[in-house]
Amino acid sequence: MKIEHVFFDLDHTLWDFERNSALTFQKILPEAGVNLAFESFAKSYTPINAKYWKLYREEKVSKENLRYSRLKETFDALGYDVEDSVINHLSEEYIFQLPNFNHLFDGTIELLDYLDKKYELHIITNGFEEVQSLKMQRSGINGYFKEVITSESVGVKKPNPKVFKYAMSKASAAPENSMMIGDNLEADIQGAKDCGMNVIHYNSENLNDIPQNVTSVNHLLEIKQYI
Q: Which SUPFAM superfamilies does the UniProt record give (predicted)?
């Protein structure tokens, strides 16, 4: 195995999505007059958001539907009455404010410094194009990556093989010389494996059911052992 190109997912892999998302909601909910304990909101919102992202990957909901419905369903689950105008405001304000919080996972910069000396680095993300570039710029990591591939630019989402093939084509990379690193076993790991890429799973959510044939790490710096 001669790795030449390393492709990263962004959210939940390098950029600490859950932490940054929580900080965003802690700011925008009270500003919009939503009087809910954040812990209660987050407990309902987190699985609902994950459900809608899965539907989005499967092309079953639009970006606009995802942004509105994840909030509407959360408020409904909590029995909290919110007007549609407030939900629409929150959905827009969330996207606007999210890139202002830019915590990275521990070890991100050290790992990127290490890999940057040896490989060409790239991003493949299902996140919304208009915010992903801001996240990378404001967290100071955009300079590490040669190619940044968003699912919106391809027209389909991971794990669709078109995303990975398009990314490798843009990077002039062969599957056997490419490594995909990501947190999502379906979208990142299986999707890349199906295209012949090497994979490393970053277990940012402390999952217990990792397939035996998948290399998985619990801290980003463990990746240095494998490439």
A: HAD-like (SSF56784)
